[in-house]
Structure formats: C-alpha cells, structure tokens
Design goal:
Elements lengths: L1 H23 L6 H6 L3 E5 L2 E2 L3 E3 L5 E2 L1 H12 L7 E5 L5 H6 L5 E2 L7 H4 L2 E10 L1 E6 L16 E5 L3 H9 L5 E5 L2 H10 L4 E5 H10 L4 E4 L6 E8 L3 H16 L2 H9 L17
Parallel strand pairs: 1-5, 1-6, 9-10, 9-11
Antiparallel strand pairs: 2-3, 3-4, 6-13, 7-13, 8-11, 8-12
Helix pairs in contact: 3-9
Bound molecules: glutamic acid.
The site of glutamic acid has 12 residues, from helix 6 and strand 11.
Length: 277
C-alpha cells in the first residue's frame, strides 16, 4: 500500500515535470504565423552595449534591437507586442529549435555548423573578431601576441572561442564564460589579460569604460551576422530578408548604427548584400 502510494506520487511528479516542460517549450507556429497573430518573441543579447542591452529602466536598446523592431514592423507587429528573450551565445540554436523564440537577432554569425540546425536570413551586418585589453597594456597587439600563456576570455558556443581554440589554443589559456559582460568584468579585475569576440561588440564595451579598456589590432576573422530562425521556414526567411533589404535601402540601417554608436568613434562599414548566405 505504502509502495503504491509512493509510486503514485512519483508518477504524479513525473507528469507534472512533463507538463512544465511542455509549457517551457515553445509553439509550433512559424514566425510569420505568430506575426499574423500580432505578436513575436525575439531573441537578443541583454548585456552587449550598442547591440543588445537590457537597460536599468527595463527598456531594450542597441542595433540588434533596432533591427528586430524594424523586421517586426515589416511583419506588422508593433514594438510593444514584441517579447524580447535573452539568448546567450551557446543557447541560440536550442532556443530556435524548441520554438522558444520566433527568431534571433543577437550578433549571431552565419556558419555552416549552425546551418545544420537553424536557417539564417541576412546577412545584415559584417564584422570580424578582435581583442579587448586594459588601456595600460602594451604587449598584446594581435592574436599572435597571446602566445606564452596569456589568459584569454571568450564565450561558450561562440565562433571567436572556436576560432581561437582551433588556431591559437596551444599558446593561450582560453577561459570560456557564459556572457561577454562576465569576460569584461574578469578583464577589469585582472583575472584575464584579454577578451576576444567581434570588433563591434568590443567597441561597445570599450566605449562604456573610457580610459580603462581598448580594442587592439586588426580583425582576424569575418563574421556575417544573420537572423536565425527555424530550419525550413523559407516563408519567414524570405520576408525577413525583404525587411533587412528595406532597412538598408531606406537608410534606417545606417541611422540605427549611427544612433547606437554615436560618440564611440566607431566607423560604420558599408551594408552587406542580403541573401548572400
Ligand atoms: N558573432 C559571434 C558568434 O555568433 C560572436 C558573438 C556572439 O557570441 O554572440 O558566435
């Protein structure tokens, strides 16, 4: 009798766990179908100034946020009907595959490995990997100068971490955190010597800590930012590509970059060819 009772409780707990999982999982509707219902859930970064940032007052800002809002607008979804969901680098494919987001605009490089799991619209921006160091540092000038056991921070599941591991890991001590803001904290405290990721991301952090941090060297990779969405959803992908194209041709693209990087000295590059991925 007692065993029976315990079993029943166990079954109940298992059923509850299943229900919770089901609720936590997303919907099967496509991005376009959700947009037709008037709502979208869009993945962004919450800790990348100039790109995707959750501000203290609860608002969101950055170029990726503006791209997300523009695309949503082209799909007839008002900004107030967008739910922004934090999408750390290592979780992006899973968030899309599980339907927890309709699409992701989060400094998300288009790569062949990721294309096995998700599709990309775009590219909507092109940048490259670079290095961030403390302003008083003089010996780190590029990836080669990380030789000799320098401590380098990057983020799990990101292309720069992979690139460094493939090309430079023998000589550097790579530390991988969950977010770039944690890497920047570690850099400021002296726990690491440099942070690596895309130049535009590092510019945002350097601008936030004037006099304390600087971006060094030339970029040493090419990162094509795409808008990640469910694999096979070519209808939404086509509509998002049209939206990106319109953002570029109307000048909204350039205006958004100018607004988000004003006063940082960041030189805005030429827009990319959409649909080249
Ligand atoms: N663009 C690179 C990537 O997608 C680095 C930036 C990031 O981790 O969000 O992995």
């Amino acid at each position: 009798m007692r065993i029976n009772h315990a079993l029943r409780i166990a079954a109940g707990v298992a059923a509850l766990a299943l229900t919770v999982t089901a609720c936590g999982g997303g919907s099967n509707k496509t991005a376009t179908q959700h947009a037709a219902d008037g709502k979208l859930t869009i993945g962004i970064k919450f800790d990348q100034p100039g790109l995707g940032l959750l501000n203290k007052d609860g608002s969101y800002s950055g170029f990726d946020v503006d791209v997300a809002k523009y695309v949503a607008g082209q799909l007839n979804v008002k900004p107030e009907n967008i739910t922004f969901k934090e999408s750390p680098s290592a979780q992006r494919e899973t968030l899309i595959q599980n339907g927890q987001v309709d699409f992701i605009v989060a400094t998300y490089s288009i790569t062949d490995a990721r294309k096995q799991k998700v599709d990309f619209a775009g590219p909507y921006f092109v940048t490259g990997q670079s290095l961030l160091v403390r302003s008083d540092n003089t010996d780190i000038t590029g990836p080669e100068s990380l030789n000799g056991g320098k401590k380098l921070c990057s983020v799990k599941g990101s292309t720069p971490a992979q690139n460094v591991q493939d090309k430079y890991a023998k000589e550097v001590q790579l530390q991988q955190y969950d977010t770039y803001s944690l890497c920047v904290e570690a850099l400021k405290s002296g726990a690491v010597d440099a942070v690596t990721t895309d130049d535009i991301i590092l510019r945002g952090y350097a601008a936030q800590s004037p006099g304390a941090l600087k971006v060094v060297g030339k970029t040493f990779s090419t990162e094509n930012y795409g808008i990640g969405l469910k694999k096979g959803d070519s209808d939404s992908r086509g509509k998002i590509n049209d939206a990106i194209q319109s953002m570029i041709s109307t000048g909204a693209w350039k205006a958004a970059l100018e607004k988000n990087f004003a006063g940082t000295g960041y030189e805005i590059p030429a827009p990319p060819q959409v649909s080249a991925n």
